[in-house]
Write a structure and sequence with these properties.
Radius of gyration: 25 Å
Bound molecules: sulfopyruvate, manganese (II) ion
Largest sheet: 9 strands, mixed
CATH topology of the largest domain: Phosphoenolpyruvate Carboxykinase, domain 3
Strand content: 15-25%
């Protein structure tokens, strides 16, 4: 191929020379096969700015996918482990979670969005472009094509990722549908843009300049910038960073981008009912989606659209970036089996033993006596510079895999039509207020008193700046990812529920309820029963008790379900403890939530009315029945 083969590209001569110099013939051909001026311009601009030594364009071919798998090892971003297909990656000791503080949604000067961290677009674009100058010197820039959502469907959103990290590309190859063909076949396709650089690396191949870690989301330019970080939640553009772009897009187009799992619950006579479920990070979302006997469509991000009066849901991804802590053969048998068998899995921030196996906190077996982890050499009792004990694995240690590795993958996981969503659940880490499972009265009541009122005790999935056990307001578990005002987001949700011929039922779940002495009132496996009960509710096959906050299960139904699905005797005493209506806590929660929404100027007034109605119902019950009311009192 002649040197001027990029002549068809409408870019400057200088840019063309530069691309010719940095790309080999194969990459040039892959690029010119795509007739997309904005892609060429985008690429040329960032090659010029970031100044990588080499630029590699990657297609969907098995060779390119294999190349990256090997390159991640060659580059030292990953290392092989003893089990076939397993590799390990480490992030900098202080780059172990999403960096909330430095993740900003860029908005025009002077605009403020409650609860959304924003930055002035002009100023922050200037800053990030400054930080990106020559940032890829000595590195290879990879140019990759993907789709959010299934291909050839109403859900498809094409994306381009530029990064100098083979680890990031390896993850995206596991997590997203390949999109190169789409770009070739559809000239001029509109797409979302992601540009990432790990920046300068230390001798462990970890991002070094964390003081210059920045993640900026430019809604107007449909572009995400991420520099000087490697932790997946900060660097894998198509994951949580893309969510900000698609939340904005969906709010304008009348659909939803949600922090939700999608799973099939298997009911009587081989019936499969699809649920979508929102839980903040580290609150059991992945383990719920992997429930034994059920099937998984997705564990983290869902697109929900209305079609012919139904809600259709699709997984944005096809892989899992899951938390490892506490995964053992007892609590999570399915996932444990997958994680301890050969297969393509990237482990991050775990402990690697001397014989090349991984260990994480809560895994079966004893804690190894030695190894290395995200802090370097490790031994039990090791302390870091601040004097804190370093655990064997970080609480936010993760595994990355493609869902094809899962035996419980739902056959419709990639269906271009999505699946019909019959129920939506909202759950948080709540020690004292919500009962384990409860159905909302209707869409509006569910969206407002459950989704929009979701709170959760803080976990390790975000960098912690202060107290650990703070109860955080987290509407729909989506707060960290919002790029529009909460008021607009809730209004969009309320609208979405209108005009449906089959409105999904809405439920709240709480796996974390405790008694007065701080003991959990449920076992992890009890969630199976809650899902089986909800599935029966969807099909009107089980009755429920009306309480001021919704519909709760009857004792005799749960008793049967515990017996049938868990072979467990469920006592009346346990039922009463778990399903007692805790009126003082419920009222305090309404006060907290109302106070928050009063501070959000564009909150729909309907939200206050629905919460006030709930408050009145609770006060009525309190007057008649006292503060803590056994579910039997409502029969
Ligand atoms: C979460 O924290 O909700 C995750 C992982 O799913 S991250 O990619 O960090 O967001
Ligand atoms: Mn998540």
């Amino acid at each position: 191929m002649p040197e001027d083969c990029l002549s068809t590209l409408k870019i400057t001569t200088k840019q063309r020379d530069m691309l010719n110099e940095k790309m080999d013939e194969k990459s040039r051909r892959k690029l010119t096969n795509i007739k997309n001026h904005s892609l060429h311009e985008f690429l040329a601009t960032y090659v010029e700015l970031c100044n990588p030594d080499r630029v590699m364009v990657l297609s969907d071919s098995p060779e390119d996918i294999k190349y990256i798998r090997e390159k991640a090892i060659e580059d030292g971003e990953e290392a092989r482990l003893a089990t076939e297909g397993h590799t390990v990656h480490f992030d900098n000791y202080c780059d172990q979670a999403r960096d909330r503080e430095n993740t900003l949604v860029l908005v025009p000067e002077g605009i403020k969005l409650s609860y959304v961290r924003t930055g002035s677009r002009e100023e922050k674009l200037r800053e990030i472009h400054e930080l990106m100058k020559d940032v890829m010197r000595g590195h290879t820039m990879y140019v990759c094509f993907y789709s959010l959502g299934p291909l050839d469907s109403i859900f498809t959103i094409p994306c381009v990722q530029i990064t100098d990290s083979s680890y990031v590309v390896h993850n995206e190859n596991l997590f997203y549908r390949q999109g190169y063909r789409e770009f070739v076949e559809k000239p001029g396709l509109e797409f979302l843009k992601f540009i990432h650089s790990s920046g300068e690396l230390d001798d462990r191949k970890c991002s070094k300049n964390l003081d210059k870690r920045r993640i900026y989301i430019d809604i107007e330019g449909n572009t995400v910038y991420s520099v000087n970080t490697q932790y997946g939640g900060n660097s894998i553009g198509l994951k949580k960073l893309a969510m900000r772009l698609t939340i904005y897009k969906s709010s304008r187009e009348g659909w939803l981008t949600e922090h939700m799992l999608i799973m099939g619950i298997h009911g009587p006579n081989n019936r499969v009912t699809y649920f979508a479920g929102a839980f903040p990070s580290l609150c059991g979302k992945t383990s719920t989606s992997m429930l034994e006997g059920e099937t998984i469509i997705g564990d983290d991000i869902a697109f929900l659209r209305k079609r012919r009066g139904e809600v259709r849901g699709a997984n944005v991804e096809i892989g899992i970036f899951g938390i490892l802590e506490g995964i053992n053969s007892q609590d999570e048998p399915l996932l444990y089996q997958v994680l301890t068998s050969p297969g393509e899995i990237i482990f991050s921030n775990v402990l690697v033993t001397e014989d090349g196996f991984v260990y994480w906190v809560g895994k079966d077996g004893p804690v190894p006596r030695r190894g290395y982890n995200y802090s370097g050499e490790w031994w039990p009792g090791k302390r870091d510079r601040e004097g804190r004990v370093v655990p064997p694995s970080h609480p936010n240690a993760r595994f990355s895999l493609n869902m094809k590795l899962l035996p419980n993958l739902d056959p419709r996981y990639d269906d271009p039509e999505g699946v019909k969503i019959d129920a939506i659940v909202y759950g948080g880490r709540d020690s004292d207020t919500w009962v384990p499972v409860e159905e909302a009265f209707d869409w509006e009541h569910g969206i407002i008193t459950k989704g929009a009122s979701l709170e959760s005790e803080r976990t390790a999935a975000v960098l912690r700046l202060g107290d650990e056990c703070i109860r955080e307001f987290n509407p729909m578990s989506n707060l960290d990812f919002l790029s529009i005002s909460i008021g607009k987001y809730i209004r969009n949700y309320l609208e979405f529920g209108k005009g449906l011929s089959r409105t999904p039922l809405i439920f709240s779940l709480n796996y974390f309820l405790r008694d007065k002495d701080g003991r959990f009132l449920n076992e992890k496996r009890d969630k199976k029963v809650w899902f089986k009960w909800m599935e029966l509710r969807v099909h009107h096959e089980v009755e429920a008790i009306e309480v001021p906050t919704g519909w709760i299960p009857k004792y005799e139904d749960l008793k049967k379900l515990f017996e049938k699905h868990l072979n467990k005797t469920y006592s009346e005493g346990d039922y009463v403890k778990q399903f007692t209506l805790r009126i003082p806590e419920q009222l305090a929660k309404i006060d907290r939530i109302v106070k928050i929404y009063r501070s959000i100027p564009d909150t729909p007034s309907r939200l206050f009315e629905v919460l006030e109605d709930q408050r009145m119902r609770l006060l009525g019950a309190k007057e008649k029945l006292g503060d803590y009311v056994s579910p039997f009192k409502f029969l």
